[in-house]
Write a structure and sequence with these properties.
Length: 165
């Protein structure tokens, strides 16, 4: 009897948590660990496709922070990128902009990124202050999917400079 009661309570709690994660979390976005990753990756991928079509060159993608944003964007772009190897080759963290990032500088050289267009993803409302000095020009992406989450920002930096201005 006691075991059946415990199982019933546990099952009810499990169903409640699953319902929250599946129905409420995508709308309320109270738990950032369950962020709008698919939507963010889709926005980034659409910008990547647009820039590649305009310039004929593969843009780079930089996630603000040591590794989390770069890792999440790369992971969620894998299934929607036509060439998944590009995700690995052209996505990195903020080390390219002279800040600390885990491991990525050993996979690529900063000079390989100089002169390229970069899609920059950040969760910092003041991200333009850090980003703008590194590019000839910056274009903030205003997408309704980003406004809905209010957590992430995407911008395109045109022509990455060797040193900030």
């Amino acid at each position: 009897m006691r075991l059946a009661s415990t199982v019933r309570v546990s099952a009810t709690l499990l169903v409640a948590v699953l319902l929250y994660l599946l129905i409420l979390q995508p709308r309320l976005r109270l738990l950032p660990a369950f962020g709008p990753w698919h939507e963010l990756a889709t926005v980034v991928e659409e910008q990547e496709d647009r820039l590649e079509a305009q310039t004929g060159h593969e843009p780079r993608i930089v996630g603000d922070g040591k590794y989390q944003i770069a890792s999440v964007v790369a992971f969620y772009r894998m299934p929607i990128e036509s060439d998944p190897s590009e995700v690995v080759l052209y996505t990195t963290s903020q080390w390219v902009l002279g800040r600390e990032g885990l491991g990525y500088r050993f996979w690529s050289e900063q000079q390989d990124w100089v002169g390229t267009d970069v899609i920059y993803v950040s969760d910092d409302d003041d991200f333009l202050r850090e980003m703008t000095p590194w590019f000839k020009s910056v274009e903030v992406i205003d997408d309704p999917r980003l406004r809905q989450s209010r957590l992430y920002h995407v911008a395109v930096g045109h022509h990455l400079l060797r040193q900030p201005t």
